[in-house]
UniProtKB/TrEMBL annotation:
Primary localization class, coarse: membrane
Keyword Acetylation on entry: no
Subcellular location: Cell membrane
Region Disordered, residue ranges: 377-424
Designated name of the protein: Sensor-like histidine kinase SenX3
Gene designation: senX3
Source species: Streptomyces jeddahensis
Amino acid sequence: MDVNAAVAAAAAIAGVCTGVIAMLAFRWSEREQRRPTRTSLHTDPVLPPGVDTVLSVLRSSAVVLDEADSVVKASSAAYALGLVRGGKLAVEPMLQMARDTRRDGEIRQVELDLPRRGTGRGEALAVSARVAPLGSRLVLLLVEDLTEARRIEAVRRDFVANVSHELKTPTGALSLLSEAVMDASDDPEAVERFAGRMQVEATRLTNLVQELIDLSRVQNDDPLEDAEPVRVDELVAEAMDRCRHQAGTKQITMASGGTADLHVWGNRGQLAAALGNLVENAVNYSPARTRVGIAARRVAAPGGDLIELSVTDQGIGISDKDKERIFERFYRVDPARSRATGGTGLGLAIVKHVAASHGGEVTVWSSEGQGSTFTLRLPEAGSARDRSSHRPGLDDEDENGQPAETAISSPYAHEPLSAPEVLP
């Protein structure tokens, strides 16, 4: 009996000890779970209330860093710019700014040129970076992409410089010619000669100012105002009349085809100026006793039929390197010829912007020594004949009031004229 009692007592004591040990272990485990770890202190900080929402609507690229320089929050734009890689800020100057701001609490801003990720052309990405403290432990980095703004600013500076140069040429010539007239006041023949030159320079100055006004009106590609169905044959006739004198002086034959029963939707004045510029260029850059053709046709397109207006010449042609730049403002393929003909270098830039504002495009085919074809593609005026009942001045020859659905093939759309028989 004494042995059994001793065994029972020992078992009871062992059970109590086990229970105590289990309870202590449970308490210790709970305490350890509640205790903040080093990892949670440094890699899982909580953003202040509302900051996450604000960062999601910012246009700038946003990055939030903790005291270990780890990225706590980054916008998709920051990843797109290549600022964040592998959970770290990948731009060392920005990282150093963040450390300095974390140390002294001062807001810092700097502009940097960063290499573009994924391009081997060495192009720089211009950015403006601003760093500010966010609470006591976090740092906020905002990065603004300035690349497009700098490009536009460079274009603006070039444009102002080019305009100044182009205006200085005729005004300087007028000043010199006026002095020559005064010095030759007793020589009627010299006065008449100098006065003629003054008229030429005054005309060049007037044309330049007018084209600058036209370009300022269309270069923003704003939605069209006062749009209406415009007859293609009337546009072509107006463009040919505009250049008839120059063509007659050089014995250049102008002819048109395929323009009947076609309408485009847009601003009549802008469309007439664009087509007139193409025809004028064709005449100016064509040798004497050649031909200039203007043709139109309807072509099918997924978003609706288009009207192609093609202007073809047998001129000097355009080299491949010049084709990429001919629609730039003030760019001239042959500066000497442009100045001789009074060209300003703005005509094709106006054509490009008119096409864009009308939802179309302008393209060029050319071969040196064979000629060029400029093709202006514009949306066809939908149900133009239906609108004619409310808009006077449109063709009403068709008693049914419906346009003819005949696609007219243009011989000028893809190659220069090669024989007189091509045009009627």
